[in-house]
């Protein structure tokens, strides 16, 4: 039986409520299916920890994470609705943990699966299914280099992208497209580069590199879409997309649009991969006004746990982990399609924990195929 160590880092705010529920979903899958063993180890880090201790995380966190097989994390930031970012000294210290867990572990590729789950009302008309994979470059582009003030009258930021990192990013996107079923419009496997070429030199460079790398994938189509048009088309007709590739900041924005059309932040999982230890976390932030109130949606955390098992299973060739991921996904959809408890953001009245418990009970009764299913 294969054993895996999972570093569980709830971080700040509502993460302390929902991240343990994601960990419980994985352990429930282990209990029901067998075939793998998880050792979930909890760690403290983030803004609240920094305010209390002056440090962003426990002393040995980096060493322990590097030895783990994956991380299940919350978000760092506000942990109290009355806080102001400018009023407490631990904020910047605590926020450093985000880059530490991502860049510090070498995770340069952000996976943002945009799937409309059965039982979720889509805000788009006549839309019952959406299945798009957004891939966001995390190591370069905007957000990475600190900006500078010029006196009190101006400021500037610098964006830098390099060939090696961009080639790796492009290659990952094409490989991911090769492993998917193609866009829903016509089944064609396709990578769409969401860009702003012609306006920004770095984005022209992106287009050049993607064109070069595409030559090694003659079975995968490549198209270029300006980011403003991409935002419109994703809302009007998501079926025209298969894999969408974006620079860091563009991917952040498009990812939030994708989350909205597939059920909202409360149900969307994410993964940051490509480094020493992959990081998995819900798309939502710390949601400080929900802390301890019991109305936060736990499904993003639970589905993030499923994404962790699936990604790790694919990486390690472990069918048992992949079966665990399918069990979690099927249980979530069973709860949503049978009128089970759901939180207010999805039109229900149930609290965080009742919703999660309903999914755990569904895991005991739903059936999954021996091989992958959608």
From TrEMBL:
This is Isopropylmalate dehydrogenase-like domain-containing protein. Keywords: Manganese, Metal-binding, NAD, Oxidoreductase. InterPro entries: ICDH/IPMDH (IPR050501), IsoPropMal-DH-like_dom (IPR024084). GO terms for molecular function: metal ion binding; oxidoreductase activity. Its cofactor is Mg(2+); Mn(2+). Residues 5-359 form the Isopropylmalate dehydrogenase-like domain. The keyword Metal-binding applies. Pfam families: Iso_dh. Transmembrane segments: none annotated. Gene3D superfamilies: Isopropylmalate Dehydrogenase.
